[in-house]
Amino acid sequence: MTANPPRILFAAPGSESGKTLAACAVLSALRGKGVESAAFKCGPDYIDPMFHRKVLEKSAANLDLFLMGADACRRLLAEGSSGASFSLIEGVMGYYDGLGRTDRYSSYYLAREMSTPVVLIVDCSGMAVTLAAILNGMVSYRSDSAIKGVIFNRIKPGMYAFYRSVVEENTPLKVLGFLPEMPDCRFDSRHLGLITADEIGDIQSKMEKLGAQAVKSIDLDALMQIARSAGSFSYMPLTFDRQFDVKIAVAQDRVFCFYYRNGLAVLEKLGARLIFFSPLAGEPLPACDGLLLGGGYPELYLEQLSKNSDVLAGIRKAVLSGMPCVAECGGFLFLQKGMRNAHDKLLPMVGALEGEAFMTDGLKRFGYVKLTAKCDNLLCAAGESLSAHEFHYSDSTFCGDSFTAEKPGGTRQYACIAAGPTLFAGYPHIHFAGQPKAAVRFVAACAAFQAGNSPRHMPDF
Fold it and tell me: Which of 24, 329, 380, 416 does the annotation list as catalytic?
C-alpha cells in the first residue's frame, strides 16, 4: 500500500532544545484552528507521546527503526495519520545522533526512511552569528539532510528580527517563527526524563498557553506547506491468519505507565480484550487469561504498593499458577520479592520472583540491545532474537538469565530476563508492533491458559 500524509519532523542540534515544548505548541495551535493532526515520537521514549496525547486527546505512536523496522514504522505512520491534515514527528536527541559514532537509527535516519521534511528547533541562547554557522553545518552534513526551516526557541521577542536576518542572509533555511521563554509552561524532569503528563495538574492550561503563543509567533501556514512537500512511501498492512478471544489484564496507573499504545493495539488485533486495572489504587487482578505489567516508577510508590497485600497475593497466585505474564522493567521489579526504599528497607512486592531490587546513583543499562533466547519461552523459541531497549537507574539481585543481550556492534553481552513457557520478565522493553510473532505467542498462550492447557507451574529460573 502507498501513503503520503502531510508531515514534518521536528529535530534539534541536541537534547534540551525544546522539541517537546515546540511540538505541543504547534499541535495545540493547529487544534485550536480546527486542523486534524496526528503526532509521533522518533525512538523508544514513552513520556513525550504522553504530552502529545494530552494535546490531541488521542493516541500518539512511536516510530523506532531499531525496535520495529522500517516497514512497521511506515505502517504506523500511515495508519496514525489517516484522516489527519498534518502529522508531526518529534525527533530524539540531536538530529544526527544515532548508534555510537553513527547516524543509524537517528532522527535523520527516520526522516530519510519516511521521506519526511525537517524543521529544526534551536535554542539561540548565547549565540549571534554563530547560529548561522551551526545551521549551515547541520544542513550540509548530509546531502539529503531534508532540513527545510527553523524555529527559534527561548528568545526575547525583540531579538526575533535580528536572528531571522542572521539566518535568512546566511543560510538556505526558511525562518518559521519563535517561542519566547515561557517559565509557566515548562515541563519538569526526573531521572527517566520529563515527569509524565498525567502528573501535571494544570497540563491543559499549559497546552492552551503554548498554542496561543504559537498562533502569534509561528508561521503555521508555512509549516503546513512544508508538510505537504513530503514524499510518498509504501508499506505492508499487518494481518493475522488467526483470531483469539481472550482477556489480558493490563496494569495502568502512575506506577505502570510505560506502554506502546500501538503495541497494545497488535494484541487487540489478535482478538485480545484489554482490561486495565490499578495495583497502586488497590484494585485486584480482574478475571483474565493473561497479564501485562509495564514499566514506570515503582520506586516512587513503594509504601503504597507494599501495603496492598491482597493485590500482591492475587498476582503472585496467578503468575505461579501459570497465567501468561509479560513484565517489563518496573513491572519486572514488581514481580520480585521486594524493593528497597531510600532508607534501605526492603518493602514486599509480589514475590513471584526471588530478587531484591534497589535504586542506584546512575544509569545501569541504557540503549538498544538484541535479545537472543537460550530456551523456548513465552515470546519466542530458543535461538530466536527480539529487538529491545533498556533505560533504568535501578538494579536487582536477580536480573534473569534466560536471554543473552548484545549491544549493537557486539560491544557488550550480558544475561537477562526470567523466561519460561508462561513468563517473560526483565528489564528490556520490546514493541509488539515490531515483534508480531511474539504478540501471537503471548495471545496464543493466553488462549491455552483459558482452555486449561497451559503449564500449571513455573519452571526454575
Answer: 329
